[in-house]
Design goal:
By secondary structure, this protein is mostly helical. Helix content is 59%, strand content 0%. The chain is built from five helices and no strands. The longest helix is centred in the N-terminal third of the chain and has 14 residues. It is globular, with a radius of gyration of 12 Å. The N and C termini lie far apart (42 Å).
Length: 81
């Protein structure tokens, strides 16, 4: 198994949907499909304030669908309704 490494840009609070489009393209280009891997890449791209806003997820992530759970929360928190 080959190690795959990418450096995601910091989370775009003003444009979270565009940020997810951008990073998901990077995931596709690197053939990253693992929920766990995507989740940890996203957490590593968040600043302190954003991590604190989703601390319940980052401290105790769900057993399954970690990435989608975090994505849904971030979009809900930073997307205007």
């Amino acid at each position: 198994m080959n190690a795959v490494s990418i450096k995601l840009p910091p989370f775009w609070m003003q444009q979270p949907r565009a940020w997810f489009v951008h990073i998901e393209s990077q995931f596709a280009n690197r053939r990253i499909t693992s929920d766990e891997t995507k989740y940890h890449y996203v957490v590593s791209a968040l600043d302190c304030d954003t991590v604190c806003r989703v601390l319940d997820i980052t401290e105790n992530p769900p057993a399954e669908d970690k990435y989608q759970t975090l994505k849904t929360r971030l979009l809900g928190a930073y997307t205007l309704s």
